[in-house]
Design a protein that fits this description.
The chain contains eleven helices and seven strands. The strands form two sheets. The protein has a five-stranded mixed sheet, sandwiched between helices. The protein has a two-stranded parallel ribbon with strand order 1-2. By secondary structure, it is an alpha/beta fold.
């Protein structure tokens, strides 16, 4: 693994509990390197410090996006022929990684989100054309330490993924803020309003998490005809000014921005 910041460390501390694997970490920052070493992984300040003959089956790049190109290029000599590169940095395309590591390695591009730091993330992946089912299964095994893992076949969908699960936690946090503020407006003390907002969102999400559960069915179960919930939903479900059209606009804006950030810079 190259990079042992929050995302890298969240993965690493789970990986080191697996049997039959060895993990090496490259981390320039000494405190972060020491933290990684405390998990039982071998930790080094640079790729040049790896033992002679070191050959990895998988290189996981968990740096900031702006450092991915350098990390990918530098890692190539440490990766075995036919090895796998997994990149968990946002917005970095398979072609951008390929330009640094060459045509040999399989590449899996991933979009994790913030809750991965507590093992409750949503990680969506896209594999290069030369990735084998074994490569995808390896990535799934490693990344499932941080939450649920899904694959998409078309890399262009990663911008939409970014707009939903990548940026999505911020939407939920803002919902908590707005929900709490609305409670204050109707007379609740601020601390109580925030507690109600957080726990209500958590509990509702946990109810809806099972794959077979339809949130629309749960919504109907909460809603009595002409009751308080129905009164609120008449506002939230307004076809012009309600929550659904607002979220469509927000997600579309995030998806456009993701595409812009991933586009190559103009020539000249």
């Amino acid at each position: 693994m190259i990079g042992a910041g929050n995302m890298g460390f969240a993965l690493l501390r789970t990986w080191t509990t697996l049997n039959g694997h060895r993990f090496a970490v490259i981390e320039l920052n000494a405190p972060l390197r020491d933290r990684a070493a405390a998990t039982g992984a071998e930790a080094f300040a640079s790729l040049g410090d790896l033992p002679d003959g070191f050959c990895a089956d998988v290189v996981v790049i968990a740096t900031k996006p702006q450092a991915v190109a350098q990390a990918a290029a530098a890692s190539r000599p440490a990766l075995k022929d036919g090895g796998l590169v997994v990149c968990v940095a946002a917005g970095i395309t398979i072609d951008a990684i390929r330009a640094q590591v060459g045509d040999g390695p399989a590449i899996i591009r991933c979009m994790p989100n913030m809750p991965a730091a507590i093992g409750e993330g949503m990680i969506v992946c896209c594999a290069s054309a030369n990735a084998r089912p074994l490569d995808q299964e390896c990535a799934r095994t490693l990344l499932s330490a941080a939450g649920r893992v899904a694959f998409v076949d078309e890399e262009t969908l990663m911008d939409a993924v970014t707009a939903i699960s990548g940026s999505g936690p911020a939407y939920v946090f803002h919902l908590m803020e707005a929900f709490s503020a609305a409670g204050v407006c109707v007379g609740l003390p601020p601390k109580l309003a925030m507690m109600l907002a957080k726990q209500t969102i958590f509990g509702a999400a946990k109810l809806a998490l099972a794959p077979e559960v339809d949130p629309a069915v749960l919504r109907d179960q909460v809603t009595s005809p002409n009751g308080t919930t129905a009164a609120a939903l008449s506002v939230l479900m307004d076809p012009q000014d309600g929550l659904a059209p607002l979220l469509r606009r927000a997600v579309a804006a995030a998806e456009r921005r993701s595409r812009d950030l991933g586009a190559p810079p103009p020539a000249g």
